[in-house]
Write a structure and sequence with these properties.
heterotrimer, A alpha/beta, B mainly alpha, C mainly alpha, B: 16 helices, globular, C: mainly alpha, elongated, binds heme-A, binds dinuclear copper ion, binds copper (II) ion
Chain lengths: ~270, ~550, ~200
């Protein structure tokens, strides 16, 4: 005869095992194409596993009680008059508190690694924009680069399109081209209503707000073409407000850049 | 010393219409008002559900082919607004609150019966006005959040009607809230202590506090928004120097607490239902009370988690992450306590029980995705995508709506004196549960993989998953059929239930079913232990 | 049960309860005023946020003069005191005195409104000129609406406190107490408004 505790431990370990297995083997996310993406996916995996453990555990507890404690036909009367159990209640206050706190700290760490806690500055060559107040954004700075190589782009959004201004080349494009493995720094402003810039493969999103410039910095890591999606309801054609971001090798990028470059106009 | 409150029968009763007509009158009887709320809410649920069906039909194909794009936006705006302000809020607060609270506190009516009737009668006109706005110049189309500047630039008449009707509904909800607070605190039967009240009273007390503290802010905000639309002021209009993010703060200061306004009463209801059908006392009464109050307090300080990708500075993002995630703790206490209530009981597996257990499972799922959403870095990817849509439907539908159904199965005998058919009830549960999960579970994947919300057209790669979701919605629509049949059949010729078919101990069952006009023939009973199952043997109704 | 509120019903039918059960209409009113106060709180929060983050655009005028609002503050504070006097008089069943004080209070309220209108007409900015102008008008206007309502209610209870056939007696103080509480509330909001809008 095995005792009750054995079964309990068996079931708990099974729940853990299943959750870990699912967490590590089921991929629910799109491709990873920026240095943010693997960091994000790490967080996702942890949250997914913790969530699964809690969810599967609770579901088993409910279904088990329904089954085990169901009223048989011949039974009359009530269940046990158990009104509470202080130590048990303390346990299930403290354990979730700890979990939640740890998750919070961990996601702070993740957020920091994504550059969320960095000071918001837009590395822009033209001094003028440095004086402008930046309201919000994600300022991702990976450690290996400081502002030499990075590419500044100004994004303006309107119903229902994105326009990408390359100040260095003095031209505007409807498609975002960026070289792989280089930090891109975007300053975004909207001309009419709120839009949002979202690239699922990069795991980044930032609202583009009229009257309040925001910034978004990222470093693509994988060559390819990815969708840019507007994620904030902006009118009837909100669903059609899409553009593409093309991540290419530096040489390809330079070719494209030089083709589009316009001479500086000196006024 | 117990003081009896036993008014001699007032003869004013004869002034109130009798029979079914009284449901169309300005009745002051809390039971009539409760039923008015419920039926009115359910009709709006059918309208909101039809709109949801329209959404799912449109999304069955990646093109915008079923309806024009701006109509789609109107449909989703109306769907969200109707479901929240005309179905969930009036039903879990107004309907069950009005019906049950006076019984629970041992009173013959609410504290302010006339205010109560006014609060109800604000709802049908504003709801109809909202639905009718579709036929004017087009209904509002800026989503239920009505973010400016979009809400300022879309056709004005629809948006103004939307504001007006939400203001009226907000007013109704404030009146209701005041009434509930006064009833629970001041109208308690002498001798009944606060800590002896059934849990639903505590839930309603917490909810009403939230209503009173946060709804007025929404009202103020919407007034400012309407000035922007009609009077050309610039509060939220960037062209005139306004600040659009301020609107979002003010709006979510109401609308986050609003989600607890939608779910706390459901927490209360489930705390009433589980002990009865599990034949066990509610586990951990005191901690339940504290966790409700904890949710109320925390709920007021987490609003900015809806704004992680808008103009919020980093420190604010972090504060709101931690505060939000901590709501999982008091909520978790409640869920563990409910499971502990089931543990060791003698559970009757009936429709009310099944819906309640479905609620627990669904809500835990939705709550866990909520805690994930609370993490800034996580939210940045999935904000405004179908992941969020999935999160909140798991909570509002899988949670609150499941509890509304559960409560209907539980209190139907109280209201009508007839039993509902169990077979149809279980069929209803099975279809709803499957349909619901089929509809909303796949939406998590959609959101993670790049489908934004509020779109009429989407990337064709998502078509298959969207069709599964639409199939689920179809099942949900079908599931209302057995329910409606059940209700109609049972009202007419259901099995007689007797006064207390569940052998319950809460005060509403200690009078006849349906109850007399002033709730008790004689004195209101003093129920000191509403959950005293297992302590005393009941002699009556042994057969259950 | 068709009476206005159940408390009366209880009181009417049970003298014992009458002693222990306080009148909860006041409780309801307080709850309502808390709600009302939250509306103002929302407006104040918006104003303060604007002030913190949105600079006044170039060339925009937003200047407030102090004399009129200071006078208005004094008016309202005095009116709170006169209202209090009215209540005291009613408690001693001196109805004519009550009526006198009430009319005086209403008079102060009306002067307040006139001053405010005067201020509106002489301000160098209009409703839609800029963010602060709009917020200023929204806040003071919303408050003015409260004063208007309050003044009307004071006039009504002044009428009701007439000696012959008036409803207001020392036994039925509730209408007066309710309006008084409301009036103090409006008064208090004005003080906050004065500090935030004019002094900060
Ligand atoms: C009744 C409605 C309701 C309820 C109760 C909740 C509950 C919660 N919600 Fe949800 N939410 C909505 C309705 C609701 N929500 C709606 C309508 C929206 C979208 C609005 C819109 O944009 O249109 C939304 C959006 C929303 C967002 C914004 C997403 C975005 O737009 O980017 C976030 C982010 O933090 C969030 C978080 C949470 C959290 C943390 C809870 C918590 O309260 C959940 C707590 C519960 C549990 C966690 C489960 C039980 C606990 C345990 C079993 C203990 C153990 C658990 C752990 C240790 C984790 N919700
Ligand atoms: C609060 C409660 C609530 C409830 C109960 C529901 C219920 C449902 N919702 Fe809800 N939904 C919201 C609140 C709610 N929703 C909110 C707040 C939004 C956000 C809006 C916004 O973005 O602004 C939203 C958005 C939303 C979307 C996203 C739209 C978009 O972003 O583009 C979708 C898509 O699938 C959806 C689907 C559904 C479905 C299939 C149901 C189903 O569960 C409905 C089931 C019910 C029925 C199917 C009714 C059955 C009856 C009939 C069909 C018969 C009709 C007969 C007669 C009239 C006599 N909802
Ligand atoms: Cu731009 Cu949606
Ligand atoms: Cu929220």
């Amino acid at each position: 005869m095995l005792n009750k505790n054995f079964y309990l431990i068996l079931i708990i370990s099974l729940v853990f095992a299943i959750s870990f297995w699912i967490g590590f083997n089921v991929n629910l996310l799109p491709a990873e194409a920026s240095i943010n993406a693997p960091i994000y996916d790490e967080l996702f995996k942890i949250l997914f596993i913790i969530g699964l453990i809690i969810f599967i555990g609770m579901t088993i507890a409910v279904i088990y009680s329904l089954f085990k404690f169901r009223k048989r036909n011949d039974q009359i009367g009530d269940g046990i008059a158990l009104e509470g159990n202080l130590s048990l209640e303390i346990v299930w206050t403290i354990i979730p508190s700890i979990i939640v706190l740890l998750i919070g700290l961990y996601s702070y760490n993740i957020y920091d690694r994504m550059g969320g806690m960095k000071e918001l500055n837009h590395n822009h060559e033209m001094m003028s924009s440095n004086t402008e107040k930046i309201w919000a954004g994600i300022s991702q700075t990976s450690d290996n680069e400081i502002a030499i190589n990075n590419l500044s782009i100004e994004v303006s959004a309107m119903q229902f399109a994105f326009l990408f201004n390359y100040p260095k080349g003095n031209f505007i494009s409807g498609e975002l081209h960026v070289p792989v493995d280089q930090k891109v720094s975007m300053k975004m402003e909207s001309k009419d209503v709120i839009h949002a810039f979202w690239v699922p493969e990069f795991r980044i999103k930032q609202d583009i707000i009229p009257g309040q410039p925001t910034i978004l910095n990222f470093t693509p890591t994988k060559v390819g073409k990815y969708p840019i999606i507007c994620a904030e309801l902006c009118g009837p054609y909100h669903g059609g407000m899409r553009a593409s971001i093309i991540v290419e090798e530096e040489s390809d990028y330079n070719e494209w850049f030089n083709k589009n470059k316009k001479p500086e106009v000196n006024l | 010393m117990t003081i009896s409150i036993d008014p001699q029968k007032t003869n004013n009763e004869s002034l109130q219409p009798k029979g079914w007509l009284r449901f169309f009158s300005f009745s002051l009887d809390h039971k009539v008002i409760g039923i008015q709320y419920l039926v009115c809410g359910f009709l709006f649920y059918l309208i909101g559900g039809s709109l949801a069906s329209a959404i799912r039909i449109e999304l069955a194909s990646p093109m915008s082919d079923f309806m024009p794009r701006d109509v789609y936006n109107q449909v989703l705006t109306l769907h969200g607004t109707i479901m929240i302000f005309l179905w969930i809020v009036p039903v879990v607060n107004g309907a069950f609150g009005n019906y049950l609270i006076p019984f629970y506190v041992g009173a013959r009516d609410m504290a302010f019966p006339r205010l109560n009737a006014v609060a109800f009668w604000l709802i049908p006109p504003s709801g109809l006005m909202l639905v009718a706005s579709y036929f004017v110049e087009g209904a509002a189309q800026a989503g239920w959040t009505a973010y400016p500047p979009l809400s300022i630039t879309t056709p004005q008449s629809g948006q103004i009607i939307w504001i007006l009707s939400v203001l009226l509904l907000g007013g109704s909800s404030i009146f209701g809230g005041i009434n509930f607070i006064a009833t629970i605190i001041k109208l308690r039967r002498p001798g009944l202590k606060l800590m002896q009240l059934p849990m639903y009273c505590w839930a309603m007390l917490g909810t009403s506090l939230l209503v009173v503290l946060s709804t007025p802010v929404l009202a103020g905000t919407l007034i400012l928004l309407s000035f922007d639309i009609i009077a050309n002021t610039g509060f939220f209009n960037p062209v005139l120097g306004g600040n659009v993010v301020v609107y979002q703060h003010l709006f979510w200061f109401y609308s986050h607490p609003a989600v607890y306004i939608m779910v706390l009463p459901a927490f209360g209801l489930v705390s009433e239902i589980l002990p009865v059908h599990a034949r066990k006392p509610l586990f951990g009464y005191t901690t339940m009370v504290f966790s409700i109050m904890g949710i109320v307090v925390l709920g007021l300080v987490v609003w900015a988690h809806h704004m992680f990708t808008s103009g919020t500075p980093p420190w604010m993002r972090l504060f709101f992450t931690i505060a939000t995630a901590f709501i999982a703790v008091p909520t978790g206490i409640k869920f563990f306590n409910w499971v502990a209530t089931l543990w060791g009981g003698k559970i009757s597996i009936n429709s009310a029980m099944l819906f309640s257990c479905g609620f627990i499972i669904n809500f835990v799922f939705g709550g866990i995705t909520g805690v994930a959403l609370a993490q800034v870095p996580f939210d940045i990817h999935v904000h405004d995508t179908y992941f969020v849509v999935a999160h909140f439907h798991y909570i509002v539908y899988g949670g609150t709506v499941f509890i509304i159904f559960s409560s209907i199965y539980h209190w139907f005998p109280k209201v009508t004196g007839k039993m509902l058919n169990e077979k149809l009830g279980i069929l209803h549960f099975i279809i709803t549960f499957i349909g619901f999960n089929l509809c909303f579970a796949p939406q998590h994947w959609l959101g993670l993989n790049g489908m934004p919300r509020r779109v009429a057209e989407y990337d064709p790669q998502f078509q298959f998953v969207n069709q599964i979701s639409s199939l689920g919605a179809l099942l949900m629509a079908i599931s209302t059929i057995p329910f409606l049949i059940n209700v109609f059949l049972s009202v007419r010729n259901g099995k007689d239930s007797g006064d207390n078919p569940w052998n319950a101990l809460t005060p509403e069952w200690l009078t006849s079913s349906p109850p007399p006009v002033e709730n008790w023939e004689g004195e209101a009973p003093l129920v000191e232990e509403p959950y005293g199952y297992g302590k005393k043997i009941l002699n009556e109704n042994k057969n259950i | 049960m068709t009476t206005l509120d159940s408390s009366k019903e209880i009181q009417k039918n049970n003298s014992e309860v009458n002693e222990t059960h306080e009148d909860f209409r006041m409780f309801g009113l307080i709850t309502f005023l808390i709600a009302d106060g939250m509306t103002f709180a929302g407006f104040f929060a918006a104003y303060l946020t604007y002030k913190a983050v949105n600079p006044l655009p170039d060339g925009a005028i937003y200047e407030l003069e102090l004399p009129i609002p200071t006078l208005n503050t004094i008016l309202l504070l005095v009116s709170s005191a006169t209202f209090h006097k009215a209540g005291k008089a009613l408690l001693k069943d001196k109805n004519s005195e009550t009526q006198k004080w009430l009319f005086f209070t209403a008079f102060l309220g009306i002067i307040f409104l006139i001053c405010q209108l005067f201020e509106y007409f002489h301000l160098p900015f209009g409703l839609t000129d800029n963010l602060f102008a709009s917020t200023f008008y929204a806040l003071t206007g919303f408050h003015g609406l409260h004063v208007t309502l309050g003044t009307l209610m004071i006039l009504i209870i002044a009428w009701q406190s007439r000696i012959n056939g008036g409803r207001l007696t020392s036994q039925n103080m509730f209408p007066l107490e309710a309006v008084e509480l409301y009036w103090h509330f409006v008064d208090g909001i004005w003080v906050i408004l004065f500090i935030i809008l004019y002094l900060l």
